[in-house]
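Input chain follows. Return structure tokens only.
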Amino acid sequence: MSAPNSQPAKLALEDGSVFTGVACGATGTRTGEVVFNTAMTGYQEIFTDPSYCGQIVTMTFPLQGNYGTNPEDFEAPHPHLSGVVLKELPRRPSNWRATRALPEFLSEHDVLGLVGVDTRALTRRIRLQGAQRGVLSTEILDDLELVRRARAAEPMTGANLVQRVAPRAAGLWSQAAASTESTPGRHIVAVDCGIKHNILRLLAQAGCQVTYVPASATADEVRALQPDGLLLGNGPGDPAAVTGTTGMVRELLGTLPMFGICLGHQLLALALGATTYKLGFGHHGANLPVYNRPAGRVEITSQNHGFAVDAESLLRVGGAVTHVNLNDGSLEGFVHGDLRLMAVQFHPEASPGPHDAGYLFKRFATAVAARQAIDAGILV
């Protein structure tokens, strides 16, 4: 049986609202920013995405856990999120790849889940009032105390959460799924601020050798690896607080092709001199429409971010907008031709559409190859 136990649990928001259900997975008390995700599938990839560090994730689709979990689909070695809120769990999963039921997965990784609440009402509250600080607990069931703790919780604005999820040292990406077409001379350094594994996989499949470095890496340390290109991956928290990584990127601007994804998109913009701002409730889902201006087409994207780049500030520093969110008009992608930069706010590695955005990794690999040819004196 994989159903939740009967232990009561509560979620309190800073606006004073309280939601009651039963516990699933771990027990205790967790604090975080409460957000909602509109994806119908992919809960395991969502729960293991390091970008959710410091957040309590509400899944809007009512049934979660129906196909269980398996280690092959992890996006990081373990989850970093503060908790999950679900409407309903099946009594048992049904999938030939499943090795654990979702409650067992949550318990094994010390993630507290709340099941049986009206997730539609909770989502509507966040949608109208914005993402809020919250407390999820099986220990504290007094509503007033929970609300007090929610209001005293650390806000997401100004929080540098990258340091919680980034690796301590550099390493080679050598997963068995790497491409057999790897080009020995095409070496990419990926700055790991909490990068998802599939970003590294797709870089390898695009013919690149990949070395990941921690977010604390200096420009000199990156140069010493002699990369042909630099990728800045996703990660959690406020991009404006990740000043060390932004400084490193600023020092390397113009010296090699760069590709930014999600937090990396924001860090590249900040390194150029643009600014970022906090969205009301963020973009979290696998079904978000983005307009690709150069191609003149709409692409369905997977997204997970609570901050965005101010488009006007980007234009002032020479960036050119390539992608725009069709729901709220926010910036979703840009290039800087003189500095050989490309960046997208969404997640091209997450198979949205399912392959609408897959061209971006090949485009980056092509840009790296073109730079190599120019350096070698070959006309391209």
